[in-house]
Every structure is written in C-alpha cells, then in structure tokens.
Amino acid sequence: xxxxxxxxxxxxxxxxxxxxxxxxxxxxxxxxxxxxxxxxxxxxxxxxxxxxxxxxxxxxxxxxxxxxxxxxxxxxxxxxxxxxxxxxxxxxxxxxxxxxxxxxxxxxxxxxxxxxxxxxxxxxxxxxxxxxxxxxxxxxxxxxxxxxxxxxxxxxxxxxxxxxxxxxxxxxxxxxxxxxxxxxxxxxxxxxxxxxxxxxxxxxxxxxxxxxxx
Length: 214
Description:
Largest sheet: 7 strands, mixed
GO molecular function: DNA binding; DNA-binding transcription factor activity
CATH architecture of the largest domain: 3-Layer(aba) Sandwich
Strand content: 15-25%
Pfam families: CoA_binding (PF02629), Put_DNA-bind_N (PF06971)
CATH class of the largest domain: Alpha Beta
Radius of gyration: 20 Å
Mean pLDDT: 87
Subunit structure: Homodimer.
Family: Belongs to the transcriptional regulatory Rex family.
CATH topology of the largest domain: Rossmann fold
Main location: cytoplasm
Structural class: alpha/beta
C-alpha cells in the first residue's frame, strides 16, 4: 500500500480535497450515489481524469452504477487522517495567524487548530478564539503532548526557517507554509507552500490573458 501511495501523481493528490468536499456536500443533501459525469460538471474536471484519479485507489465504483456517496466519503476521510478530528498547530500569531485562529476552520468540524505559538510577550498567554497562545520556547514540550497532525507557519519571513527547524526537531511531519520564504526540511517532512502574493499575481495574469483574448 505504501508503494501505491508513493506512485500517485501530485495532480491527483491536489484534486482529492475537491472530491472530498463535493462528496461531503452530496452526503449532506441525502444523495446516495454519484457518477463521474456529475462530478465532472460540478468541479469542471474532465470525466477521464476523475476515473483515472479514482483508479489509483482500487475499485471505488461500479460500471453502470457510479459511486456510492457514503462509501466515497468514508474513503476520503480515511485518506486524510485515521482520526475523526485533525489537530492543527499554528506558529506565528500576527494578523494572518489571528485571522486563522478566529476562523479556526469553522466550516470543517473535523479540522481544528488546538495549539498556537509566538515569541512576543504581548501575545503569549492571550486567548484568541478558543486557543491560548503558547511561548515558542515551550514548543517541543507542548507538541509532545498535543499529538498534532500538521502545523501552519505564519511567522515573518526571516523567522520561517528557524521555526521550521524547531518543528522538525519536534517530529512534525506536515507544514503548511504561508510565509514567502521557501523552507528546507528533511525528505520525510511534507511542506505545502501557500504564497498569497504569487496566487494574486497568477490571478492578474489570468485576468489580463482573458481580456486580451476577448
């Protein structure tokens, strides 16, 4: 099974959350089954790609029937985490960090920020949302007890690598990096880079391209 996971294309893995969100919505509406055509129209992904994506995980559906929504939902949940609630940490309680703590994935009950860390005295000890901010010096001690799945990094850029090093030393295996700095981590640590500046520039390029071709 581990070899199969390693052979799954990155593009497929990036689409899995989209499938999961749609299947969850269908389940909440009481819909029992769905086919690749319906998924394709809802997500604007061609049916062949959907069937190919699903094929990496074995027989998820049946020809002529489609996919059982409840079975798909349980499958995607198992691929995200073996636990019902995914515990998340946050390092860097600036404006973005505070916004994430206040929002705290409220539309995703299975994901919750449970720990936050900062180096500033004026922030340490504050309660933001339901989370009390810890001193960064206590990171390793807290993480040993917290059993987190992933940590969100929202520090200033110059502090990103040092914070990442501390997370690696605390055996964190997943980091979502909101800083503009590319961090270096061992091969067994997964990093997802979220650069808001790059995303905004990409949007502007797409807008200008559409305008020039219209």
